[in-house]
Design goal:
By secondary structure, the chain is an alpha/beta fold. The protein has one domain: 3-Layer(aba) Sandwich (Rossmann fold). It is built from nine helices and seven strands; from the N terminus they run E-H-E-H-H-E-H-E-H-E-H-E-H-H-H-E. A seven-stranded mixed sheet has the order 3-2-1-4-5-7-6, sandwiched between helices. Strand 4, helix 5 and strand 5 form a beta-alpha-beta unit. Helix 7 packs across helix 9. The longest helix is centred in the middle third of the chain and has 17 residues. It is globular and about 45 Å long.
Length: 261
């Protein structure tokens, strides 16, 4: 008698605009899926190096706050590897730099201020959507489940990744799920109300006490970024526990891609 091969576990690919976005938004769910034997990977899109010179005062101020200097991407890559280890997820880093480093052919920075990073993608960067989509299509395992940020709050890199995810999903006919960008969701919950009005479906995935601890530890591994949102790691842990209680787990959204804001 020939035994049928065991079905392959689901393969979840989480797209993270920056190193910490998946850990922040759904680290507990990633851990739970890995615990269930599912294959989980975090693909960070804006993981390239910073230029050696020509940084904006805004970028330099971020480096100072992060206490990384110009080696911020290198340090953040190491933080991400530690974070993904906590979540039991594989990590993949792409070579596109963070928007705060990107410039045109003459070296003019495209996003040189805090306001600029919350504006739409610069027209010069429109070809990035096609380039990144082709790169992801060449790497995605067959039958993968793609998970993208909703881009709540409108950060340009989050918008870029969402556009790429939608294009990839359409080309590969893959299911695509969306996560609410934490902590931007705290100030933009009205955008989720819009999805409800469009009959999108919210799927709530439970997160255990172990998952909460892993979630908190995965965020803590991004040590340079804690000061962006909290006074210290204890404040972060309290905030994540509160967020989990409010959501009763981690919510992933599905709906008609044409409806996206």
């Amino acid at each position: 008698m020939t035994l049928a091969p065991k079905p392959m576990p689901p393969s979840w690919i989480y797209l993270s605009p920056h190193f910490d976005d998946v850990a922040l938004s759904c680290g507990g769910l990633v851990w739970e899926q890995a615990q269930d034997g599912e294959s989980v990977s975090v693909w960070t899109i804006c993981a390239g190096n910073a230029p050696e010179s020509g940084l904006s005062p805004f970028a330099e101020s971020l480096h100072q706050r992060w206490q990384t200097g110009a080696q911020a991407p290198e340090q953040r890559r190491l933080e991400d590897l530690a974070s993904c280890k906590v979540m039991n997820a594989a990590a993949r880093h792409f070579d596109l730099p963070d928007c705060i480093y990107r410039a045109d052919a003459e070296g003019n920075l495209l996003y040189a201020s805090e306001n600029a990073i919350f504006e739409p993608l610069h027209p010069l960067e429109a070809p990035l959507v096609d380039r990144l989509s082709q790169e992801l299509l060449s790497l995605l395992p067959e039958g993968a489940r793609l998970v993208s940020p909703l881009s709540l709050g409108g950060h340009v890199d989050h918008r870029l990744v969402r556009q790429v995810a939608v294009q990839v999903a359409g080309a590969a006919r893959l299911p695509v799920w969306f996560y609410a960008d934490y902590p931007y969701i705290l100030g933009h919950s009205d955008q989720l109300s819009g999805l409800v009005n469009l009959a999108w479906t919210a799927h709530t995935f439970p997160v255990s006490t172990g998952g909460l601890i892993a979630w908190q530890n995965a965020i803590a591994a991004h040590a340079s970024q804690i000061s962006t949102f909290w006074s210290d790691p204890d404040a972060m842990c309290t905030a994540i526990e509160s967020y989990l209680q409010q959501q009763n787990g981690v919510i992933l959204w599905k709906g008609e891609l044409a409806d996206l804001f």
